[in-house]
Structure formats: structure tokens, C-alpha cells
Specification:
CATH superfamily of the largest domain: QueA-like
Order of helices and strands: EEEEEEHEEEEHHEHEEHEHEEHHEEHHE
CATH topology of the largest domain: QueA-like
Radius of gyration: 22 Å
Oligomer: single chain
Strand order of the largest sheet: 2-1-19-18-14-3-12-13-17
Number of strands: 19
Distance between the termini: 22 Å
Length: 413
């Protein structure tokens, strides 16, 4: 399979530190916008995004909400133990279920200073309505780099999501090389963030304001939402020579049956994904539809939602027989209705890289990504080798890079 042999050295570029935006601009929509369409680059302000999107288009956002996933505890000796909450333990069906747990919960975590944390139960005091709450962490087990940590707290009213909000810190990307500040609690969050679960922001959405939404609406451009909870793996560079041995991170997502129906009815129009997370979700729906259509039964049992899970190489190994997006989504809807599902809640590990061609999405709104990242592979899949031309232009014309940087609108090949 050709895609597995892609050399990551072909997807790198020189990113000087001064090109990385360390803080957001004062106003979200004042960021610069690079538009790439049919080999041509245009430069504008993000406030004018509506001018480059056709009327009646469907624009899809990721409404996940970044949680305060970085927790700092003090041992009795005074040593600081940092616990970074990655995702729920396997006991929970999805992130929402785990976030709504009361009294205690199990979580997969990275632990800083792990060698100095033996069996001691870590405790910190947090405050809610002027009442002190004991919030505790107990190390349960270790699996490779990750730990299973049990958190428990002595206030039955509070969910884990609420406890994190009180006890934790927004986990800024490591390449910013700074601690979170008060402003980050607002600015490292989209204005439409709704569902708790991400440890990183879907940063393409950080540029959007109510004013931008009004201008899109004036052209009858419809906005809708998926939910994909961004994991820490989004920052993990490909450290192997080829991507064959790189393990793509899996992430939870939720999509309503109403949105799938809207996408089906909008296939003759332009469908714009805001962010690589939205794009990965939408493209996963196509392949889930292929699975639903081709596998009415698995091992003589009815197809269940776990069977739809998209693994890293599925899209390159499955035979889609040139099945249209219309037919794939129709199959998925048929399966959902048969199983009385109003929304699809599952995981995707989809890896989008050249020579992948988009099945549902026509254009991508995104930021400028790190060298040797799976996010840059997505960009290369969307616009081919022209990603080099786009990034060189951005570097030469004072665009700001990475999470707090400027945006681009890329029309697919």
C-alpha cells in the first residue's frame, strides 16, 4: 500500500520560532486569511471569509469544548505531580458519559514526575460555593506511557466536568512554551464550544465571531455541528521514517442523524469543513456508510456500532467500488434508523494522507500546521503537492503559524 511508504521527510519545512503565534490577536476575525483555489493564492482578512464561499454552501464546525485537563497535585513531600487527562478509561461508552460521573471516575492520563509518585493518594483542596472540596487522585495501573488514574471527590453534586473546571488548567499546546494565562480560558475556546471533552482546541474555529456568522448567513450559507473530542495525539509528530509505523490517535465523535440527512441533501452543493477534526469526522461517515452497506452481518451477528469503527488503514484497504457519497450515507442512515439511533457515537482512527481523495468535503478551513504532523498530511491530501507552495507563501508573507496563528481556506483538488 503506497500510503504506508510515504516518507515523512517529504512533509516537513523550516518553521522559525518567530513565525509561531504565542498569543492570539486582540480580535478573533482580524487574523489573516490565505485562500487557495485551482493553484491560485489570494490573501485577505478572515472577516471576509464569506466572499470566498458560494451561497447555499454547508459549513460544518466541531463544537467540542476544551476541558481543564492539566491537573497539578502536591505530594506530602512537596513534590509536584502533573496529571494530564487524556480520555476516559475503557469502562465508559463515551466521553460525555465519563464527564457526567459523580463522586469518582477512571481516566487515562499522562503523568509528569511519575517516578516520584508511588502509592500515595494525592489530594488537593478546591472550592465550590465557598465550600472546601477534597479532590483526590489514586494511581491504579500503567499501560505503556499512560496511567489509569482514579479521581474521587467528596461533593456528590459535582460532575467530573465541573470538578475539572474548578481544579484544572487549560492545556495549551506544548510548542507555545508558556503556561496558560487568564485570557487563554476564553481565547483557546471557540465561541460555539458546547460539549466537554477535548484536550486541544479545534483551532480553525478560533477565528469565527458572531459578525463572521452573520455575513455567512446573509449568503444563505448554513452552519452545522459535529462533535469530535480532540486528543493529545494531535500534537504528536510522526517520528518514524515512513508513516507505516506511526500509530494514529483515535478520537471520540458524535454526529446526529439530522446532520447526516442534511449532508446527504447538500452533496450537490459545497460542503466546507472547519478544521481537520471536522473533516476527519465527515470523511469517516462515508466509510462507515460503506461498512454499513457491505456488511449486513458480521460473524452471523447483526452489525453493531463497534463494527463501524474506522481503523487507521481502513480507508486504503476497504473496497469502496466507487460507491458514491450519496449511496454510502444512505446506507448509514438506513442502518441507524433500523437500530433506532438518533445520533452516531463512536471512534475514528482515520488517517488522511496522499493519495487520499475527499469523498464528502469540498474545502477545508484550517490553520498552518507543524512540520512532520498528521495534520500537514491532511493538507497534502486536500491540495496535493501545492501545500509546499501555500506554506512557502505564508512564511514569506508574515502569516502567523499554529494554534493561535492565521487561517486558510483550501479548495480540494
Amino acid at each position: 500500500m503506497f500510503v504506508k511508504q510515504l516518507a515523512i521527510k517529504d512533509f516537513t519545512y523550516n518553521l522559525p520560532d518567530e513565525k509561531i503565534a504565542k498569543h492570539p490577536l486582540q480580535k478573533r476575525d482580524e487574523s489573516k486569511l490565505l485562500v487557495f483555489d485551482k493553484g491560485t493564492i489570494k490573501e485577505d482578512n478572515f472577516f471576509n471569509l464569506d466572499q470566498y464561499i458560494s451561497k447555499n454552501s454547508l459549513v460544518i464546525f466541531n463544537n467540542t469544548k476544551v476541558v481543564e485537563a492539566r491537573l497539578l497535585f502536591k505530594k506530602s513531600t512537596g513534590t509536584t505531580i502533573e496529571i494530564f487527562c487524556l480520555e476516559p478509561a475503557d469502562e465508559y461508552a463515551d466521553i460525555t458519559t465519563a464527564m457526567l460521573q459523580h463522586k469518582k471516575v477512571l481516566w487515562k492520563c499522562l503523568v509528569g514526575n511519575a517516578k516520584k509518585w508511588k502509592d500515595e493518594v494525592l489530594v488537593k483542596t478546591i472550592w465550590f460555593n465557598k465550600k472546601a472540596i477534597e479532590f483526590s487522585a489514586k494511581k491504579i495501573s500503567r499501560h505503556d506511557e499512560n496511567f489509569i488514574v482514579e479521581f474521587f471527590w467528596d461533593n456528590v453534586e459535582l460532575s467530573f466536568a465541573e470538578v475539572l473546571h474548578l481544579a484544572g488548567v487549560i492545556p495549551l499546546p506544548p510548542y507555545l512554551h508558556r503556561n496558560a494565562e487568564q485570557d487563554d480560558t476564553v481565547r483557546y475556546q471557540t465561541i460555539y464550544a458546547q460539549h466537554n471533552g477535548s484536550v486541544a482546541a479545534p483551532t480553525a474555529g478560533l477565528h469565527f465571531t458572531d459578525e463572521v456568522f452573520k455575513k455567512l448567513s446573509a449568503k444563505n450559507i448554513t452552519k452545522n455541528f459535529v462533535t469530535l473530542h480532540v486528543g493529545a495525539g494531535t500534537f504528536k509528530p510522526v517520528q518514524t521514517e515512513t508513516i507505516e509505523t506511526h500509530e494514529m490517535h483515535a478520537e471520540f465523535f458524535e454526529v446526529s442523524i439530522e446532520l447526516i440527512e442534511k449532508i446527504l441533501n447538500a452533496l450537490h452543493q459545497k460542503i466546507i469543513a472547519v478544521g481537520t477534526t471536522s473533516l476527519r469526522t465527515l470523511e469517516s461517515l462515508y466509510w462507515m456508510g460503506i461498512k454499513a452497506g457491505q456488511q449486513s452481518t458480521v460473524n452471523n451477528q447483526q452489525l453493531v456500532v463497534e463494527d463501524l469503527y474506522i481503523k487507521q488503514w481502513d480507508v486504503y484497504e476497504m473496497n469502496d467500488e466507487n460507491i458514491s457519497a450519496h449511496d454510502a450515507l444512505t446506507s448509514l442512515l438506513k442502518w441507524m434508523k433500523k437500530n433506532n439511533l438518533l445520533k452516531l457515537v463512536t471512534k475514528t482512527q482515520i488517517l488522511i494522507a496522499p493519495p487520499y481523495r475527499l469523498k464528502i468535503v469540498n474545502a477545508l478551513v484550517t490553520n498552518f500546521h507543524q512540520p512532520k504532523s498528521t495534520l500537514l498530511l491532511v493538507v497534502a491530501a486536500v491540495i496535493g503537492d501545492d501545500w509546499k507552495k501555500v506554506y512557502e507563501y505564508a512564511l514569506q508573507n508574515n502569516f502567523r503559524f499554529l494554534s493561535y496563528g492565521d487561517g486558510c481556506l483550501l479548495f480540494a483538488l
